Amino acid sequence: MDNEITLSFIAKGENEALARMVMSSFIAAIDPTIEELSEFKTVISEAVTNAIVHGYDEDGIGKIDIHAQRLDREIVVSIVDYGRGIRDVKQAREPLFTTKPDEERSGMGFTIMESFSDDVDIYSIPDRGTTVTITKKFVPIQESCRIV
């Protein structure tokens, strides 16, 4: 492991931006492309937003933990909430499925995470919480593409 970080915060919407910023800073050392950085920020945003909105119903009380490890150009991030959990993970992973259709939720969170990651693992226990573990491999930067 090259480096790791753990971040804990209260499940408030305003902390989604904090998580995105901290995790973006964490991967800066591997010099991601703009596209990779954008995709990674989106994945973090989706996972944290899911925890806040679905794990805790935006109660502003629950806690979210993020643990990330970096090994060379691979990042593994686990986003953990201790909220309501997911009763049917398979159904939750289906595009357009949402438990909050009256709140104009698109039901695309897991689909977006999967499209911008190399692997997404979801472990959940109803009424105990959910852990979403995301693995993303960043492509090596070609020396000819570097700005000197």
Brief account:
With 148 residues, this protein is an alpha+beta fold.
What are the defining features of this structure?
five-stranded antiparallel sheet, sigma factor antagonist activity, 4 helices, alpha+beta, single chain, 28% strand, Heat Shock Protein 90, 148 residues
Sequence-ordered SSE layout with sheet pairings:
Blueprint: E1 3-10, H1 14-27, H2 34-55, E2 63-71, E3 74-81, H3 89-92, H4 109-115, E4 119-125, E5 129-137
Antiparallel strand pairs: 1-2, 2-3, 3-5, 4-5
Helix pairs in contact: 1-2, 2-4
Task: Describe the protein.
The chain has one domain: Histidine kinase-like ATPase, C-terminal domain (Heat Shock Protein 90). It has a five-stranded antiparallel β-sheet, with helices on one face. It is globular, with a radius of gyration of 16 Å. 32% of the residues lie in helices and 28% in strands. Strand 4 (119-125) and strand 5 form a beta hairpin. It has helices spanning 14-27, 34-55, 89-92, 109-115, and strands spanning 3-10, 63-71, 74-81, 119-125, 129-137. Helix 1 (14-27) runs antiparallel to helix 2 (34-55) and helix 2 (34-55) runs antiparallel to helix 4 (109-115).
